[in-house]
Design a protein that fits this description.
Layout (H helix, E strand, L loop, with lengths): L4 H14 L18 H10 L17 H13 L10 H10 L14 E8 L4 E18 L10 E16 L7 E10 L4 E3 L3 E4 L3
Antiparallel strand pairs: 1-2, 2-3, 2-4, 4-5, 4-6
Length: about 200
Amino acid sequence: MKYNTKLASMVMIASMFAGTAHAATLYSNLSLGSSGSQVTDLQIFLATDASIYPEGLVTGYFGGLTRAAVLRYQAANGISQTGTVGPITRASINSGMGNGNSSYDSDAPIISGNNVSVGKNTATVNWATSEAATGRVYYSTTWPFYYATALKSSDGSFNATHSLTLAGLNSNTTYHFAKESVDASGNVMWTTHKTFSTTQ
């Protein structure tokens, strides 16, 4: 498989911005073709929920993936599904972002530690977070990978220490993985990708 540097860059951009969710405020109507910091703020917000915006790309450009994420957000929140950010959708999103209120929890959990115990067909990934958060590990035998389509193991409980076992792995194989933690306010932190190899 040819290494796709553009895709890798987009995944890295998404992971960097996802950990820096902030209490922004949208002032403009947004739709296909819009670009700029307002779109960036919108994408950062949408990326805090993988079921709404699984691709998590933060590009500053309102394209098809962002429109699909807005449609899912509107459906999930009982808003008329237009795929555009007008006054009603904007008010809902601004409420979710804390309406620019600096007291709103905008700090993503800080992830530390990267201890991986490997076996022939399993691997256990351990890490800690600076606050109680959920844990998830995305993994694949290829890199780069899309978070939306990668294999995953998750724990939805809120803890400061995390341990997830990945089962059904191939022996003597290198796996690429990234960790995700989400705090109670929905702030997301992803790590950059790392690797481990199972035993023979």
